[in-house]
Structure formats: C-alpha cells, structure tokens
Amino acid sequence: MSRFFATGSDSESEESSSADEITPKATGTTFNKPALLLSDDEEDTKRVVRSAKDKRFEELTNIIKTIRNAMKIRDMSKCLEEFEQLYRAFLKSKTIVDKEGVPQFYIRLLADLEDYLNQLWEDKEGKKKMNKNNAKALSTLRQKIRKYNKDFETEIASYKEVLNSSTNVISLCRCQDEESESDDDEDSEDWGSDSVDSGGESEDNEGAAASLAVVFLKKYKDGRRKRHKKIEQVEEEVDEDGEAEEGGWEKVKGGVPLVKEKPKMFAKGTEINSAVVIKKLTEILQARGKKGTDRAAQIELLHALSGISNENNLGQGILVKIKFNIIASLYDYNTNLAAFMKPEMWKKCLECIDELLDILFENNNIFIGENIAEDSENLAISDQPFRVRGCILTLVERMDEEFTKIMQNTDPHSQEYVDNLKDEGRVCGIIDRLLQYLESKGSTEEVCRIYLRRIMHTYYKFDYKAHRRSLGLQGETKSEQDQEESEGEDSAIIMDRLCKFIYAKDRTDRIRTCAILCHIYHHALHSRWYQARDLMLMSHLQDNIQHADPPVQILYNRTMVQLGICAFRQGMIKDAHNALLDIQSSGRAKELLGQGLLMRNMQERNAEQEKIEKRRQVPFHMHINLELLECVYLVSAMLLEIPYMAAHEFDARRRMISKQFHHQLRVGERQPLLGPPESMREHVVAASKAMKMGDWRTCHSFIINEKMNSKVWDLFPETQCVREMLVRKIQEESLRTYLFTYSSVYDSISMETLSEMFELELPTVHSIISKMIINEELMASLDQPTQTVVMHRTEPTSLQNMALQLAEKLGGLVENNERVFDLKQGVYGGYFNRGTRTRP
C-alpha cells in the first residue's frame, strides 16, 4: 500500500472525524432540544477542530500578510493600524509563545519592518511627497518599532546573521535540495514505498506525517533550480578565493572573461571616405532621442567614428563635425534638466571642448556658425575652406551651466565640493581660449556673450594680490614675489575692459544689466564706494528692476547687499542702512539672495515651482555670510536709532527707522532673566542699552570682543580699519545720545570734560556739538572763551511733555467729533461756521 493510502484512507478519516466530533449531552433535562434546520450543504461540511497554537499563529500570519501588502504600496497609516493589531494578537498568544518560543515569521517581520521604515525615513524626497497622515504615521510607527524591537534584539540579531552568512545559505539550500530530490524519487515510485505502512501509532508514521509537508512543497521546481544556481555561484566564489590565495589566480566575475569587441562601423573591405563617414554619422544621429536608444553606446560610436576619420586623414572638417555631436550627446545623456552630469561624463566633456578648440586654433580655414545650412557645409578636403554648422559658444555656455549644476548638487561641506571647485580653473581657461577665438572671428553679439561669462566668473572674487600691491606689501618669499610680477592684469582692469565693451556694443538689455551689476559688485567688494555708488545711481536700475527675470533680480539683491557692506566699511552708516533695509526688513534675506529656500506651505509653492527655484540657487562658494549681513544692518540701525530715540523720547509722532531693530529690543526687554549675551543679536541689544545710557565703553566691549571678532569682524579684508571705524562711531553717537538724554540736567558743561569722557579730540567734540546746534537738535550755545556749552533750558520737563501730548490728543479728538457731527447734520465747517448759519 502506498503512503497516500496509508496516511489518508477513508476508514481512518471517518474514525478521526468521528473522534473529533464533539456531541454535547444535555445535563439535568429529559427532553431533546429541537434540531436546527440546516441546508444540505451545511450538513455535508464537517467541523474541523484546530489547536490553539494553529489558531493564534494563523491570526498572526494573516495580519503579517496585510502589513506586507501595505508596505508594498507605502500605506503607513494601514501599517500602523495593523501593527497595533498584531501587537494585541501577540499578547493573546503569550502563553503559547512561552511554550513554543517566538515564531520565526514574527521575528522576520519585525526585522524587515524596521529596515523598511529606516529606508523610508532616510529618503527625504519620498517623505516630502507623502501626505500628512502617512508622514505622521511613519514617525509614530518608527518610534514604536524601535522601542518594541528592544525586547527581541537577540532573536533579530541571530536572524540577520543567518541571513547574511553564505555558509548557512549553502547548507540550507543543500538540505532543501536533497529533500526535494528524495521527494522526486518517491514520486516516481507512486509517492512512497510499502515500508511506510499503517502503523499510525508508531514513530515511523509520525516521521511520515512530518515529511508530508515537504512532499507537498515539491511543486516549487523553479525555486529549486534557483537554489542550485545560488549554491553553484557561492561555491565558485569560495573556490576562486581559495585559488587566488594559493596560486595568484585572477578573480573573474561571471565565469570566463569576455573580450568586449568594438562596434563594427563599416563592413569589411569598405573604402572609407568622407561620404561614407558622413553617412554613418547621419545614421547615428538619426537614432538620437528615439525610445530605446542607448546614449552611452551612441557616445562610444561617435568616439570610434572620430578615431576612424583620424586614421584615414579625412580632414579636420569631419572631425570638427563629429566633435560637435559628441559634446551634444554628452549634454543629452541626462534627459532630466535638473540632473547634473556624472564626473566621468564631465571630464569627457571638458576634454572634448579642449580638443575642439585646439583644432580651431590650429586651422584657420575652418568656419563654424549657426547660420551655415547643412546643405552648404563643406566637410571634405578641397581647395575651399571648411564650413561646419554649429556654435561653439552655445556649447561653452552649456558647459558653464552644467558646472553650476554640479556645484549646486554637491554637499558644500564635503571634500567632493572642493575637488569639483578645482575644475573652475579649467572652465575659466576654456572661456578665455574661446574669448580669444571669438575676438578674431566672432560677431559683436557673440563677443558680448562670452565677455559676460568671463565677468560672471570674476566679479565675486576678492583680488588679494592687487590688495597687497595697493598697500605696498610684497610676498614673503622670492618665489611669491616673482609670481606676483609674472601675473597679468588685476581683476579690476579686466572687469573694467570687459564691462565697458559691453556698455558700448551690446544691444540686449539683459547682458548690459548683468554687466553693470557685476561691475558695481566688484567695486563694492574692493571698497571702491564712490565708483560703485555713482555707477548704481547713473544706471537707474532700481527703477525698473522688478520687471527683470528672477536670476537678474537675485544678482541685483546681491549687489545691493555688497554695496551696503562696502558703505559700512567706509563709515557711511546711513547709506549702509538704506542699502540693506529692503533685504533685511523682508525677513527673507536667504531666499532673496538665492542662498536657500524657506519652508512654505504647498499652497504658496508647489513641487514644480520648488524645482525651478532650486535651479536658481547660487553655489555655496559665492554665498554672502548672512550673519555678517544681519550684524552690519543691526549695528547700523543701532548707531542711527539710539540717538534718534533719545532726541525724540517724548515725541508722540516719533517714527521708526528700523522695525527689525525695534523688534530685537522688545525681545530683549521681554526676557525675565538677563544673562551675559551669547548670540550676535544679544550682543547688539546689550550694546544698544549701554549706548542709551551714554556708556560708550560698555557698548564698545559688547560690539568688539573675541566672540564677535571670530563671527563677524575678522571676515572683512581690512579688519583693523573696520574696528577703528566702529570705535569712533560708537564714541560719537554715544556723545550725541548723552547730550540728548542729560541736557535738561546741566546748565553748562565743559567741552574738555566731554572730550575726556568719550576720549575724543576737542575739535571733534566742537564739530559734533556745532552740528547739533545748527540743526536745532540741541537748544544751547557755545561759549568760545571758556570752551563750554550753555544750555538754554527751552526743553520742556517731562510733566510739560505729557501735558503737551494730552493737549494734542484732545485736539485730535475734538476735530474727529466735530467732523462726525457735521456729517450727520449735513453741514460742513464745524464750529467756526455756526455764526453764518441762517436761523429759521
């Protein structure tokens, strides 16, 4: 008898089913309960009694299936809900788990779920695309799973070790393979032999029942073949490793090393001439852009074609044409505009452009241009000069844009950014070479375009060597001195020459606008305040800059900020404040300068707009320090606002010079406990309070100290000059504030005393007080023989000031009341016209 009949006969099934059926007996009653009316189908179905273990484990597996389905569609809310249900079901199975142990499928789910959640959490772009409920459920579930998995750390660790161990994989696959092979043999003999018989209560029958599951798993033949392949692959890797250690064999992946043949361009025996190569080039280009075209293979074909044309001396015209198409194919390798070029593609691109420029410089008989039609091209060697359709200026502009994208998409705090930035020297070298070529053969419009590219790589760089020469300093070593002498023009001379050519020759407003802004920026960066200010005022850009495109507006904002910082360095505090006011008062300086995006709602900016704005961002090496910018603005506002507040302390119509500065003062006043200042803003607020009391030394110590020097002041090129200017401005404005605040206390005060108090020269004190008297800010007079300031006592006392404010408010109230009354009565003129009214 076969195993099938031995284990699953009808008599045994009837006996087991009859034994399994439970017939409850009615206790304490003599009558039979009426039987339920059942349909025929329900009577035929037999009741199956399962153990508690099977029930609980089936409930767990069903929930796990639901969780895995939710993981596939990234439904985090469903995952969280089902995980909580799984947790409750596992608690119900606690007694069974204590006996049997934690099931392996449960440990596997916990490990997979934790890895899956960590992967989702690290995917920043994917998290942004999640809706609010899924994002919230992701963070909640991640916290819960990390906390919950602490109880199963050992089981999860052992599971991962088994999963990652190659030896365990081999042994496991072999065992399963041997079982499946034995099952195949038994299948060929009608699923078993007579050795396994009807001894149900014997141990042999238990073994047969246990192997029954293995028998039914034999269906998965494909899986067994995969295991065979996996075993062979792992064994081959192990054997190759051993051979490599013993005899020095070279490890080759994938078996026998295949010799990669070069693509055959032409049939054997074909005569290679210009017409054949041009025809092949046209065939390659026709496949460009089509679906399924391998772009990398296209680039290789074009390289091979250029090699063939070189070998057969087909002329430089065909070679230039092929080079043009190779560079264009490198640019088209990434279909997405936002994606940047891979490093290997970028290196190839630079090399190809250099080679193309070499050919153009060596051969003066090659004419290239966009206006040359394809029919009129002359690529073959002849008496006529070569004519090639193409624009090398467009290729170099695209190369410059690709370099900007590479810098935008690289982490600015990594070594990779520094390595990529080193390529800027090559980019500038290519632009300079093309500039020389176009100056001799290009049109005026093309020269203006390449000049602007050169300007954009120069305007933001501080020329330290020119600065040292202006100060009369020389290099420390002889090699540095020789290098400085051998170097060419200063950046100021280069900028002046390029920009003036654009001013004179350019016919497009955009290029001229960009050149003016870059010129102003460069002047301001090198502390040429008056040239920068005059050029800005003469250009009238501030009148219509709102109509320009966003990149030009960003450049304008950067120029205004640099102009304000330059004015601050020169001691023009009011001009600095006015230049920085628009940027700082908006609260969006980071976004307006193109140095980052602020967090906004999806209603204000969708994903497409965010991508566009990211492409407009300025690379990190061109950024302006935002903390330095804010510090310059707040210090300028302090030097203007504190004397004004002291002069108009009781003026009801006092206006604010800087709202942001007042906001910082209010924040400082609201703090219940005042400690020593830590941030830059706290230092400025503490200095403002000291200046308000006329204490210039304390103000000076808060503005200029080690912490502020390292954060702000040391970032300026002429650090010491800026510090000296700041000290002088603090002394002068503290003197003005002191006179405004305490003039009502003094009858007269000696100018020598004021000079000693604020450590200023006597002529400076005399000048400051004279200006205050002339501008009618201070009601006093100077007594020249005694060098004293005599107060006139015309300022009202605090009580009188309050009375004046009350009178002004009451007058305004009366006027408003009269106006409302007249509107109701329909009579205009109020109280003063009452006498002229005619009585009835």
From TrEMBL:
SMART domains: PINT. It comes from Cyprinus carpio carpio. This is Eukaryotic translation initiation factor 3 subunit C. Residues 178-192, 234-247 have a biased composition (Acidic residues). Residues 620-796 form the PCI domain. Component of the eukaryotic translation initiation factor 3 (eIF-3) complex, which is involved in protein synthesis of a specialized repertoire of mRNAs and, together with other initiation factors, stimulates binding of mRNA and methionyl-tRNAi to the 40S ribosome. The eIF-3 complex specifically targets and initiates translation of a subset of mRNAs involved in cell proliferation. Component of the eukaryotic translation initiation factor 3 (eIF-3) complex, which is required for several steps in the initiation of protein synthesis. The eIF-3 complex associates with the 40S ribosome and facilitates the recruitment of eIF-1, eIF-1A, eIF-2:GTP:methionyl-tRNAi and eIF-5 to form the 43S pre-initiation complex (43S PIC). The eIF-3 complex stimulates mRNA recruitment to the 43S PIC and scanning of the mRNA for AUG recognition. It is found in: Cytoplasm. It comes from the Eukaryota. Component of the eukaryotic translation initiation factor 3 (eIF-3) complex, which is composed of 13 subunits: EIF3A, EIF3B, EIF3C, EIF3D, EIF3E, EIF3F, EIF3G, EIF3H, EIF3I, EIF3J, EIF3K, EIF3L and EIF3M. SUPFAM superfamilies: Winged helix' DNA-binding domain (SSF46785). GO terms for molecular function: RNA binding; translation initiation factor activity; translation initiation factor binding. GO terms for biological process: formation of cytoplasmic translation initiation complex. One of its GO terms (cellular component) is eukaryotic 43S preinitiation complex. The gene is EIF3S8. The keyword Ribosomal protein does not apply. Keywords: Cytoplasm, Initiation factor, Phosphoprotein, Protein biosynthesis. PANTHER family: EUKARYOTIC TRANSLATION INITATION FACTOR 3, SUBUNIT 8 EIF3S8 -RELATED (PTHR13937), EUKARYOTIC TRANSLATION INITIATION FACTOR 3 SUBUNIT C-RELATED (PTHR13937:SF0). Belongs to the eIF-3 subunit C family. Its main location: cytoplasm. Residues 1-36, 176-207, 228-249 are annotated as: Disordered.
